[in-house]
Design brief:
With 501 residues, the chain is an alpha/beta fold. The chain is built from 12 helices and 17 strands. A hairpin with a 6-residue loop joins strand 13 and strand 14. The longest helix has 25 residues.
């Protein structure tokens, strides 16, 4: 008498769930071919019907200053504060706004701290942008910048604020901006990732950066950003192991792809197809990435433009030059994170150091793109997750002070890629505390995410505008998950048409 081995008895049973699953498997397998471009496709298909309109930009380079740079010390000149040193911020200006626990109960209250830095009006900028002495190189490209003084957010602490501006939600788990761009537009280079992230070295790396900030969320893992490293392999495990030839590696991948395809056919999981595509991309990157990070073909003039730091891997300068090289190779989304802007104390020491890191390289990137005829089709974005308060945190002196987090208004700028060059948009009051109207009077009520006001830019508006410049209607770029349609801008966001060229 034949008996079934007890460990295999489950194979004779078929539950209701398994019945429906097996029945749907044939349909899922038939539909699966449409998910890949070739047998082992090179990239995820872009969403059909995109771009929605003719794009102004082909790519975006996002220079993200993590920690919250001080708009008052860099971009938003407030001479009146110089007359109010040490005086308390008026209650009617703060108007009950939420502040962090770090300053809510400090014994000194909210003493006003004017910037210790000199500002110069840039005559080559149509609106006469004022620029801090901390950014002398960036000042030379003022005529290319569209500077927005009225960016705002609801988030007051770092991780929720960074998550919010990068993914459109303070709650972790949503797709990042770069993932949405990949989902919408696909890849323009089969040999490089569609979305590349770099972390520039800094002297003050206080804030952690989690990979969900460039992650795909509930989208396919095809849309994950790839983190490039400054030491060892630019991408983990890129180098071939000793004794393994390219032919050996190719044979291994082919065998692995066949096994994965068999699994995909059986289980109908699209993530298995993503794995096949990612293995293929990694194989091609063994050739494309080493060439990408080799600066030996750059001229001396170009290297000098970026400064001495460009020859040190991982510096902001090296990241900026890599960003330009990625842009030349049609990578759609490039993001550089520069940490260390969280100046609760010793702002004079920390911001001075931070600006030395970024100033020359930022200006060089703009000039380099311009010289190569690439700036018009490359959108460059600069900014952090929030600004900093006009009042001091901790000890206040004429030469040094700290500033707390300030989500109510901060400065972001954009260049190239279809934005008007040489303009400013929005303004703040005499304290740099509230968004103001064209006469400098604080808006009442202050704008919020549900009530857009001309002259302001919520972070959803920023993301909506970025998508628009790349040819995407942010209302129409959606993904159905858990029974509802999600989008980067949630149910908010306005394209800021006043800054579009």
């Amino acid at each position: 008498m034949n008996t079934v081995h007890p460990m295999r008895e489950h194979e004779l049973l078929l539950t209701r769930r398994q019945l429906f699953g097996k029945s749907a498997l044939g349909l899922g397998t038939a539909a699966m071919a449409g998910l890949i471009q070739t047998e082992f496709g090179t990239a995820a298909e872009p969403q059909r019907g995109l771009p929605h309109h003719t794009p102004k930009a082909k790519r975006v380079i996002y220079l993200f200053m993590s920690g919250g740079p001080s708009h008052i010390d860099l971009w938003d000149y407030k001479p009146k504060l110089g007359e109010l040193f040490g005086e308390q911020l008026p209650d009617e200006v703060r108007d009950g706004q939420r502040v962090t626990g770090m300053t809510a109960n400090q014994k000194s209250g909210f003493p006003l701290a004017p910037s210790r830095y000199k500002f110069t009006k840039q005559d080559n900028q149509a609106d006469g942008l004022w620029c801090s002495e901390l950014l002398p190189h960036t000042a030379t490209v003022a005529k290319e910048l569209c500077v927005v003084h009225s960016t705002f957010t609801e988030a007051i602490n770092h991780d929720p604020a960074i998550t919010y501006i990068q993914t459109g939600s303070q709650t972790p788990g949503r797709p990042s901006l770069g993932a949405w761009l990949s989902y919408g537009l696909g890849s323009a280079n089969e040999n490089l990732p569609h979305y590349v992230v770099m972390h520039a070295r800094t002297r003050f790396p206080e804030q952690s950066l989690f990979n969900r900030l460039w992650g795909p969320g509930f989208l396919s893992s095809d849309h994950q950003g790839i983190l490039m490293r400054s030491q060892g392999d630019p991408v983990l495990f890129l180098s071939k192991p000793d004794g393994v030839s390219s032919a050996d590696r190719r044979a291994q991948l082919d065998a692995l792809a066949a096994i994965n395809q068999q699994q995909a056919n059986e289980f109908g999981d699209p993530e298995i197809l993503s794995r096949i595509r990612q293995h293929e991309m990694a194989f091609r990157m063994q050739t494309s990435v080493p060439e990408l990070v080799d600066f030996s073909d750059e001229t001396k003039d170009t290297l000098d433009l970026y400064g001495d730091d460009v020859n040190t891997p991982g510096t902001f300068a090296a990241c900026c030059l890599t960003a330009r090289r990625l842009a030349e190779r049609n990578v759609r989304n490039i993001q550089i994170f520069h940490r260390g802007w969280d100046a609760h104390g010793n702002l004079a020491g920390e911001h001075s150091s931070q600006c030395k890191d970024i100033d020359q390289a930022t200006a060089a990137l703009i000039k380099d793109l311009k010289q190569r005829g690439m700036l018009e089709e490359t959108l460059v974005v600069w900014g952090g997750e929030f600004g900093r308060t006009p009042y001091c945190q901790g000890k206040l002196t004429r030469v040094n002070y700290g500033r707390d987090h300030h989500p109510r208004c901060f400065t972001t700028w954009m260049a190239g890629g279809g934005v008007k060059p040489g303009i400013t948009y929005g303004r703040t009051d005499d304290y740099g505390y509230n968004i103001a109207d064209s006469d400098g009077q604080p808006l009442s009520p202050q704008p919020d995410v549900d009530h857009w006001t001309p002259g302001t830019m919520h972070i959803h508006d920023l993301n909506a505008t970025i998508l628009h410049l790349l040819g995407i209607n942010h209302h129409r770029l959606t993904y159905r998950y858990q029974g509802r349609d999600f989008r980067l801008t949630d149910v908010h966001g306005h394209v800021i048409s006043d800054i579009l060229a």
